[in-house]
Specification:
The chain is of the alpha/beta class. The chain folds into 3 domains: 46 residues, no CATH class; 128 residues, Aspartate Aminotransferase, domain 1; 253 residues, Aspartate Aminotransferase, domain 2, CATH 3.40.640.10. Helices cover 39% and strands 13% of the residues. The protein is built from 14 helices and 15 strands. α1 crosses α3 and α4 packs antiparallel against α11. Pyridoxal-5'-phosphate binds next to α6. It comes from Populus trichocarpa. This is Aminotransferase class I/classII large domain-containing protein. Its cofactor is pyridoxal 5'-phosphate.
């Protein structure tokens, strides 16, 4: 029977659809009378209740009901806001129209992705680090590939995650059956190694205290802290993975936001080809959050303990469980990587970086300690001694701004708020004004 206290965990995109969430919860409750005889997946049962983004959606709905005339500003979900450059939108529109002609029509493409796009990704992002186009698998987004990688790995591996971290790593681990039960006291799942990444450790785990796991999820620039790992930190990580015979799954979804000389790819680190997979995305780099396009790099050298190449198994997963990204999205991806498209896309990431700077200066001028924002579209603001949900409520009540409580990304996120820099400039400036009025 459905137990409302162990409701489904949902990921970021659900934040956009508060009413749909309400409706689906209602249907689940109403459905109890006509139960099937199908047992619920015990791993789904394990997912913790009251998960971050549905909870924020609920509070947003309640806030709108309470203040129907308020102009709500969302610095919450990390969704892009600026229109696509014309060159990219028209490439997709023209291709879509050509599908209505006998000469232009195309059906399935290669499961691994359009050859030209794989080549363009390898040449644009991995030019100096020896990634072959055949090692690049085009996807419908990094989040989907994180789950496909979990399917590839199965339930018998152990994982480590940064604490705090993007929720998909932990949740997909629970769903596939790698995790133990959720412990309310520690707010951690059993059998997952939480690697604390806090300001005192320069947002890098203390590897001397980190237990060996098969898999290490590592996101840089990090969501939520905004920290981009330094070259030295990533060298330590690769060394640690080598010594332990572990595989790093490196998430570089925000690499386009790096402004200093931090590595944009794990493959910039010597030796990474033998221990790492990289997942990445067009979502935040090119505003493709709705279009859906990403990629995963699996080097040929990476092998399982029995010597079998990981790339062969990943290819099998992609052919069996995916069938390739939308051809329209892939045409758009190719346009993003043309010289003109790339320049246009970079000017939009520059716009978001300027937003981040405005917010960073605002929080700093208020005397708050703020991290991130320089190599990522996220700011990580410290409110010492406060519970992050209390700060969320105070900011929402008094400024009508949605933020994200840091505790939602893991226990080490308590006392922090994640503030996102995606948004139209006037909303960012208005948010800055409201925050100044609140905290000055
Ligand atoms: C760190 C990280 N990885 C992956 C994703 C998902 O990206 P995609 O839209 O490509 O599925 C996100 C989305 O917010 C993210 O923050």
């Amino acid at each position: 029977m459905y137990n409302s206290s162990t409701g489904n965990s949902m990921l970021c995109r659900d934040f956009m659809r508060p009413r749909i969430i309400q409706a689906s919860l209602k249907t689940q409750k109403e459905g109890i009378a006509g139960n099937t005889k199908v047992p619920r997946n015990v791993n789904m049962e394990k997912l913790r209740s009251g998960y971050l983004f549905p909870e924020i959606s609920k509070r947003e709905v309640q806030h709108i009901e309470k203040y129907p005339d308020a102009k709500l500003i969302s610095l919450g979900i990390g969704d892009t806001t600026e229109p696509l450059p014309d060159i990219i939108a028209s490439s997709m529109a023209n291709y879509a129209l050509s599908l209505s002609t006998a000469e232009g029509y195309r059906g399935y493409g290669a499961e691994q992705g359009n050859k030209a796009l794989r080549k363009a990704i390898a040449e644009t992002f991995y030019k100096d680090v020896r990634i072959k186009e055949t090692e690049v698998f085009v996807s419908d987004g990094a989040q989907c590939d994180i789950t496909r990688l979990q399917l590839l790995l199965g339930s018998n591996v152990s994982i480590a995650v940064q604490d705090p971290s993007f929720p998909a790593y932990v949740d997909s681990s629970v769903i596939i059956g790698q995790a133990g039960d959720f412990e309310d006291k520690s707010r951690m799942y059993g059998n997952i190694e939480y690697m604390k990444c806090v300001p005192q450790t320069n947002f890098f785990p203390d590897l001397a205290k980190t237990s060996r796991t098969d898999i290490i999820f590592f996101c840089s620039p990090n969501n939520p802290t905004g920290h981009a790992a330094t070259r030295q930190q990533l060298e330590q990580l690769v060394k640690f993975a080598k010594e332990n015979g572990s595989i790093i799954i490196f998430d570089s979804a925000y690499a386009a936001y790096i402004t200093d000389d931090s590595p944009r790819s794990i493959f910039e680190i010597p030796g990474a080809r033998e221990v790492a997979i990289e997942v990445s995305s067009f979502s935040k780099f090119a505003g493709f959050t709705g279009i859906r396009l990403g990629w995963t790099v699996v080097p040929e050298e990476l092998s399982f303990s029995n010597g079998f190449p990981v790339i062969n198994d990943f290819n099998r997963i992609v052919c069996t469980c995916f069938n390739g990204a939308s051809s329209i999205a892939q045409v758009g991806g190719l346009a993003c990587l043309s010289p003109e498209g790339f320049a246009a896309v970079c000017s939009i990431t520059d716009y978001y970086k300027e937003n981040a700077k405005i917010l960073l200066n605002t929080f700093a001028s208020l005397g708050l300690k703020v991290y991130g924002g320089k190599n990522a579209p996220y700011l990580w603001v410290h409110f010492p001694g406060s519970k992050s949900w209390d700060v969320f409520t105070e900011i929402l009540e008094r400024t009508h701004i949605i933020t994200v409580p840091g505790s939602g990304f893991g226990p080490a996120g308590e006392e922090f708020m994640r503030v996102c820099a995606f948004g139209h400039r006037e909303s960012i400036l208005e948010a800055a004004r409201r925050l100044e009025n609140l905290y000055l």
